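Figure caption, in words: inputs first, then the predicted bound structure.
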Amino acid sequence: MKMTVRKKTMQTTIAPVADPVIRTERLTLRPLTQLDAARVAELAGDWDVARMTVRVPYPYTLVDADEWIRSISDGEYVRGMELDGTLIGACGYVVDDSGAAEIGYWIGKPYWGYGFATEAGRAVVAHCLGPEGFKRLVCCHFADNPASARVIRKLGFRLIGSCSGWSDARQCHAPTLRYEQTRSWSRFLGGRAA
Ligand SMILES: CC(C)(COP(=O)(O)OP(=O)(O)OC[C@H]1O[C@@H](n2cnc3c(N)ncnc32)[C@H](O)[C@@H]1OP(=O)(O)O)[C@@H](O)C(=O)NCCC(=O)NCCS
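Bound structure (coenzyme A present):
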């Protein structure tokens, strides 16, 4: 299925910290509810999505998605990405052991290739470095995920190393690349992230 989707520009509106919703040019990033469980199961349950994530098992059932949404805690920032009222993916961050925000995202397969991960990712990065006040952000992708590598580069991250990361869907460890972005690095880059 090929969709007609408005081209993106760089415009992002960051809402005040108290507002749980962030609006980008084409997307609304809003908290997930139990009503999203079926859609999350449908989109994240696709093997090509699940296998690139750490925590989505395969197969991924409605019960799994429902439990995941219920388990999202206060300390975790997860937002559903809505396009014209339709949920197309999710993004957010968790705070790692070093106090850095670890950014994550997935997009439903029918919506790949339209710049949505980059658009949502930019908003989450701006939210973390701005209102949330993080000094350091980190991000990882499996080595066999060039699309995510490209998104991470576009978000202004730089490669800091490699390791082995667990994948629930694959039920094994897989080579993983690690990236970081600091507030000072981000200021230095300005608008120059590829
Ligand atoms: C990775 C993912 C989030 C990308 O979403 P998306 O909305 O299609 O991403 P964008 O359109 O913003 O950008 C994708 C970029 O990767 C590039 N790309 C796509 N497939 C690629 C490939 N096989 N090799 C190299 N680059 C590729 C695109 O050309 C684009 O770069 P460009 O803007 O310079 O042309 C999506 O594929 C996904 O959800 N995958 C499964 C889950 C996942 O990987 N989550 C991230 C875990 S780290």
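The helical segments are 37-44, 47-50, 62-71, 116-129, 146-154, 183-189.
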